[in-house]
Protein: DUF1145 domain-containing protein
Amino acid sequence: MTFIVTIGKGITLLAWVLMGYNLVMPFNGEISLILNTLLLLTLVMHSIQILIFHRLFKTQLPLTRSDYLNVFAFGVFSLLAYRREVIEKS
Structure:
């Protein structure tokens, strides 16, 4: 499971870099519009995941600002890592 989470975080980081690069130096054609739409969707979904993270784990783990940033950056892959941490703790 750790391998899957690590690979998922790497792919997510690559997606962030690609979408960020598109904001600075837009690609030609429709790909720019698609990447901007994906960026907006990613921002919304990761914000929702932060709310889920807060509701699920605030009583079980001491949460710091970096934990929230980690979930915002890597989404479900961070949630899986924190879930594993809670399970190991119990």
In short: The helical segments are 2-24, 30-57, 65-74, 76-89. The longest helix spans residues 30-57. The mean pLDDT is 92.
